[in-house]
Amino acid sequence: MAHIVEVSDAVDPRVDDFRDLSRADRRPDRPGGRGLVIAEGVVVVERLLASPYPVRALFGVRRRVDELLAATMDLDVPAYVTDADVMARVVGFHLNRGVLAVADRAPVIAPAELIGRSRRLAVLEGIGDHENLGALFRNAAALGVDGVLLGAGCSDPLYRRSVRVSMGHVLRVPFAHLDSWPEDLKLLRDNGFRVAALTPRADARALRDAALDRGSVAVLLGSEGPGLTDEAIAAADLAVRIPMVGGVDSLNVATAGAITFHAMSGA
């Protein structure tokens, strides 16, 4: 079980993993930083504790840390306990959720490994908004998508805001990076996947007619503004659209993803 360590001084070096999270150039979860995974709040911390990410420490007010102790039964890590004022001085802002946890990253999964053990996949291109990325992972977890492949231009799904918005589900939905885009989409086809590109183009097939619940299917979702590139759409087996009423040309990418993931499930 995690062992309680009282912290009364905001400059205590033992909580440096949690320090100055509001400063973009020092946040440890940013690319170029220490590469830590940061979970906020009891629910998300519980999911981090149950994930393959090696937990380093917890930090929070006593009440919130106490709620999590049972979930740390198999861990030998420190749980730093302090008051809300000291925690705010360490973190750089007042944290309403009252508890944080940090972990090292798990080993990277190879795309071929993820594809080989999956039947339904989401493939993302240019998803740069961390909140949209987190919401997509939450939707994928809720609607039975087996994993996520990250193509060109995607943000880091383990960025603190993405982890928070996903409610920790980014920690349980496996993901892999496609280094050659869109050439690596061939890996999907080689493994028997049908690749569907989601686009509002009028000549695309309506979602209800695309039979995405049959066989192994990967759905491509594009950036929040321009959507998928022409190259990505051309590399897919078919283009699919979500029919909408006149005057509305698109949906938020996480919303469009949820609708499409539901169609893939066949429910």
TrEMBL record:
One of its GO terms (biological process) is methylation. One of its GO terms (molecular function) is RNA methyltransferase activity. Pfam families: SpoU_methylase. Residues 122-261 form the tRNA/rRNA methyltransferase SpoU type domain. Keywords: Methyltransferase, Transferase. InterPro entries: Alpha/beta_knot_MTases, Ribosomal_eL30-like_sf, rRNA_Methyltransferase, SpoU_MeTrfase, tRNA_m1G_MTases_N. This is tRNA G18 (Ribose-2'-O)-methylase SpoU. It comes from Saccharopolyspora phatthalungensis.
